[in-house]
Design goal:
By secondary structure, the protein is mainly alpha-helical. It is elongated.
Length: about 90
Amino acid sequence: MACGLHKGQSIAVIRHNARVDFCHAMRVILNLPATHERNRYADRKFVDAVLGTKARILDTRKTAPGLRVIDKYAVRCGGGQNHRMDLSDGSAD
């Protein structure tokens, strides 16, 4: 799985609404990659700690509101595995 951004790749599209503070929207968008990278790095440390064992690093459903897909992607990029997306998904991978 390829993880990361590529030159020229879009990570967000802003459709500005006069009622929304544009700077606030930009701050959120700029913080997303940093949050993803922190999660990926933390997961990688746990994955490295159990190398050579039969242990697996799995994530939980407890993610930042609205960012579940991004948080779970960061876990995969760090070498961990996704447990399940929500209560209706009973799979372990």
